[in-house]
């Protein structure tokens, strides 16, 4: 046992009580961790991150939830991803809302990456248009 845990259980004399106390300590930490990860997912925004960095961040949070025993299905992960996209991505979000077939995370990555590249291309073209 770590020193922190040992301090909490030194007065316990029976093995069953010890295991119950340890399980209780770690389950409350686990619930708190799960809640914090869910909050982080709800607050995640793409912002200035690359598409790859944003998706990796969301996936790492989803992996942490899975490791804590609360895995998300792909639809939930996709919902978190879409919720964190800026207004310039809303045409894509609207188009996805009209699909009859669900999109995979990999296909969503491709779609968001493509839109991101097109946005960058048009911003670049707009900046150089006066110099031609």
How is this structure best described in words?
The chain is elongated. It has one domain. It is mainly α. It has six helices and no strands. Helix 2 (15-43) packs antiparallel against helix 3 (51-67). The mean pLDDT is 87. The protein is 72% helix and 0% strand. It comes from Aegilops tauschii subsp. strangulata. This is Retrotransposon gag domain-containing protein.
Structural class: mainly alpha
Following the backbone from N to C, one meets helices and strands in this order, namely: HHHHHH
Kindly report how far apart the N and C termini lie. Answer: 71 Å
Helix content: over 70%
Q: What is the oligomer described by this structure?
A: single chain
The tally of strands reads 0
Instruction: Tell me the major beta sheet.
Output: none
User: Given the C-alpha coordinates, what overall shape results?
Assistant: elongated
Mean pLDDT: 87
Tally of distinct domains: 1
Radius of gyration based on Cα positions: 22 Å
Strand coverage percent? under 5%
| Poorly predicted residue ranges | none
Summed up, the helix count is 6
């Amino acid at each position: 046992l770590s020193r922190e845990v040992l301090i909490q259980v030194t007065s316990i004399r029976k093995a069953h009580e010890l295991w119950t106390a340890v399980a209780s300590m770690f389950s409350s930490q686990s619930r708190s961790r799960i809640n914090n990860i869910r909050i982080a997912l709800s607050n995640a925004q793409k912002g200035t991150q690359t598409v790859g960095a944003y998706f990796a961040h969301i996936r790492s949070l989803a992996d942490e939830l899975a490791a804590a025993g609360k895995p998300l299905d792909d639809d939930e992960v996709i919902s978190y991803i879409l919720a964190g996209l800026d207004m310039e991505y809303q045409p894509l979000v609207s188009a996805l809302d009209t699909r009859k077939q669900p999109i995979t995370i990999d296909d969503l990555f491709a779609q968001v990456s493509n839109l991101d590249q097109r946005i960058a291309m048009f911003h670049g073209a707009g900046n150089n248009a006066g110099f031609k």
